[in-house]
Amino acid sequence: MRFRGLRLLRVGGIQIVIDYSWFVIFFLVMYTMAENYFPQTERQRFTTPQYWLMGLVGATLLFVSVLLHELAHSFVALWQGIRVNSIRLFIFGGVAQVSSEPGSGRSEFLIALAGPATSLVLALLFGAVSIVAYIAGGARVVAAIAQYVAIANFILGLFNMIPGFPLDGGRILRAILWDRWNDMARATRVVSQIGNAFALFLMVLGVLQFFVTQSLLSGLWLVFIGLFMKQSALGSYQAVVVKAALSGVPVSQVMTENVVTVDWLTPIDELVREYIYKHQFTHFPVFNRDELVGMVSLGQVKSVPKEVWVFKQVRDLMTPLDDVPVLKPADDAVEALTRMASPESGPMLVLEEGRLVGIVSRRDIMNLFRIKSDLGVA
Known about the structure:
By secondary structure, the protein is α/β, with parallel strands linked by helices. The protein has two domains: 241 residues, no CATH class; 124 residues, CBS-domain, CATH 3.10.580. The strands form three sheets. The protein has a four-stranded mixed β-sheet with strand order 1-2-3-4. The protein has a four-stranded mixed β-sheet with strand order 5-6-7-8.
């Protein structure tokens, strides 16, 4: 799978990805600490370069804290038998991409609680470091940075306990309601409504802050967070509705059976002219005579300069079959949709005993959902 962003490292088999938007919040945090927080709290004890260095260290430690928060969720998910593919750090924090949702309210409760608990433990640890450094007297810089990171982790832990989606507190509340009602959809709807209400509150608060205190940055930040929460709360409920509508539907019911295939010796210019333009598909299974050998996509064609299309063949840029994600006809459509959750994921081949029987895309699956919605059965 391809990731948009920078691959940082792998921890316990989990790929850590830094989204490009994350650098915006990193710089804002560093700037705020260097130009406002530390000069005010330390009463001009240090020089401007020293404040910026303190800001850099503080922002880095806060970044590590957010990463540990997400890793805590992920490790508990792994313990509960849920595969975690990656953790993406972006402007509003972090999100883990998992292969499936928790199977019970108890599992979701443990997974959701792990993040805030980790943040509060980190707040205690950094708070202890700050106190020891202040008492020692000769480590003022360490004390100031540790105090900031402790406060930030404490706020992060408490903020995430707000009982509304997409925050951890919302997932904890959903887990409790789910376990009590034995109805995940109903629990999700209630918690999404709470998250939506809190999102509106943040947006109103941001507007009021701008007009009352003339603080443009703080006001806009609250509005953006509110918009993000509102969108995420709606998306969380929609995801549950989709899952309920498609649960039990096999891939064979939504896949395209009449698959357009291409020979691996086909020149790239012919692939574009006779396949991509003619059929208007973006992915094609590749065969070497009667043997399925891989998949070629529009994205791979775009990576080749047009002037060499006539000299290159499909086999020169296709993805080998071993690296192509595949499904079985009996696989659940919800599982297929989950595996195609990434924006970079394309259609998946459907194989039965090694034989190609179809191809399925997100569009195929969502078309069935839309039909069920129009008929009032979703």
